[in-house]
Design brief:
The complex is a heterodimer of chains A (about 290) and B (about 140).
Chain A lengths: L7 H11 L1 H6 L10 H8 L4 H7 L11 H5 L5 H9 L5 H4 L1 H20 L25 H4 L6 H13 L4 H14 L4 H11 L5 H12 L11 H7 L20 H8 L28
Helix pairs in contact in A: 4-8, 8-13, 11-13, 12-13
Chain B lengths: L5 E4 L9 H5 L5 E6 H7 L3 H11 L5 E5 L1 H11 L4 E5 L4 H12 L3 E5 L16 H12 L7
Parallel strand pairs in B: 1-2, 1-4, 2-3, 4-5
Helix pairs in contact in B: 4-5
Classes of the chains: A mainly alpha (about 290), B alpha/beta (about 140).
């Protein structure tokens, strides 16, 4: 196939011509360019200390290196090694950054062990439902970013347009799909893999399973306060217009609503860390 | 038969610094768009574009089709039966390697640099357990860097 192109536009035209089925499904091209050079340029900009402090926020100091790491344009070890050079005390300053890199390493090892079984429920759902209670396919309103839930529609549009979502947006969207809409995580995982530039069956599927509770002790879900806190309040709309009322409740109330077959939850946050945050966990090194 | 192998570049290792390209800088190198995989997984054009841009920075020929068939023909065209690549956990990659071996090719799978080197079996039950197991060495720079 052709290797020489004068411009990116010429390359994109060529790809539309050569891969017409893909272009017909979704014609969008990401602003993120592929290639090691683009990855190295991003690597120069990382700030592991700021990442550790702000990574859960949509406007946090995330690296956006995941597509480059996923395709080996940058190796996991060279990213870690570079991060370690940026501080005299990397165990403190780069702790969270290296931890998230280790997550990818972990997922790769699980994939090596499980193989195609990562498409199966690794454990039963802990939601009070069985797999049969979940729909097999994504409905049209989700696929068309027309759920009427403002934040979710925005995330879906961003996924389509850029091939990238902040980790927290992935978690919120996955929880919405699996727990609010009661759709099998596999449908969501296939969908993400179609679009995410960093789409990797290991990180992707195992993270969906974590949200679903088939690879964790309990389901991940969130409420409107959590969405507001980490989205910079760009989705701060408690009116019915935004469609966010489905998230606007305490965790106890939401748990009772989403998982009615489970015994009532003790009256406290689902699980807290020392800092009082709900448990957070990455899909990717975002 | 040529002693010079061909290098098979798989989608998990799209860097000119990856072990196979570094170890065999003069070997003909190939990337294959797996057309059946693209159709089955319905990958979007933006994903294809990202990978294609990675490929344009590599000294590889780009073809498409079934990887086993395309690689077989490429190796035969270069009069060799040795295919060097970098290992991947992808089950599809593993299948391709097995099929190539069954067809009589010697497939040399180089090992990518591990994130951490530990002696004991990895505890994969939960990520938190794995992290506890490796964090003492996770902050150690790779020897070669």
């Amino acid at each position: 196939m052709q290797r020489a192109f004068k411009t990116r536009a010429e390359l994109i035209d060529y790809l539309r011509d050569q891969f017409p089925d893909a272009a017909q499904r979704d014609d969008a091209i990401s602003g993120m360019r592929g290639g090691r050079q683009a990855g190295l340029a991003l690597l120069q900009q990382i700030d592991p200390k700021a990442y550790g402090a702000s990574r859960n926020a949509l406007d946090g100091a995330v690296s956006r290196l995941s597509p480059y790491i996923r395709h080996g344009a940058l190796s996991l070890t060279e990213v870690r090694d570079y991060a370690l050079t940026l501080s005299d005390n990397p165990r403190a300053d780069a702790n969270k950054f290296v931890f998230e890199l280790a997550y990818r390493d972990y997922f790769q090892h699980v994939y090596a062990k499980e193989g195609v079984s990562i498409w199966d429920d690794l454990e039963p759902y802990k939601t009070g439902f069985t797999a049969q209670d979940y729909a097999d396919q994504l409905p049209a309103d989700i696929l068309n970013a027309a759920t009427g839930v403002t934040a979710m529609d925005a995330f879906i549009q961003e996924l389509y347009a850029t091939g990238y979502l902040h980790n927290h947006a992935r978690m919120w969207l996955a929880a919405y799909v699996v727990h609010w809409r009661r759709i099998k995580w596999q449908a969501g995982a296939r969908w993400f893999l179609q679009h995410l530039l960093d789409g990797d069956p290991a990180s992707n599927n195992l993270s969906w399973q974590w949200v679903a509770s088939t690879f964790s002790h309990k389901p991940y879900f969130f409420n409107l306060d959590n969405l507001h806190k980490y989205s910079g309040k760009q989705y701060y709309d408690r009116t019915g217009e935004a469609g966010h009322a489905i998230f606007d409740a305490s965790y106890e109330t939401l748990a009772a609503r989403l998982f009615p077959n489970l015994p009532p939850q003790p009256k406290r946050p689902q699980k807290t860390t020392k800092k009082g945050k709900r448990r957070q966990r990455p899909h990717y090194h975002e | 038969m040529n002693k010079q192998p061909i290098v098979w570049v798989f989608g998990d290792h799209l860097s000119p610094t990856q072990p196979a390209l570094r170890q065999y800088p003069n070997a003909p190198a190939l990337y294959v768009w797996d057309t059946a995989m693209l159709a089955r997984n319905q990958l979007s054009l933006k994903r294809i574009a990202f990978v294609y841009e990675c490929l344009l920075e590599l000294p590889v020929e780009i073809q498409r089709g079934h990887p086993v068939d395309v690689l077989s023909a490429f190796a035969q065209a270069h009069n060799t039966n040795t295919i060097v690549t970098v290992d991947s956990v992808s089950p599809r990659f593993q299948q391709h390697c097995q099929r190539l071996s069954e067809k009589g090719f010697a497939v040399e799978r180089l090992t990518p640099e591990p994130f951490v080197k530990i002696d004991q079996d990895r505890d994969l039950k939960r990520a938190s357990r794995y992290w506890r197991q490796i964090q003492a060495v996770a902050f150690t720079k790779t020897e070669s860097s």
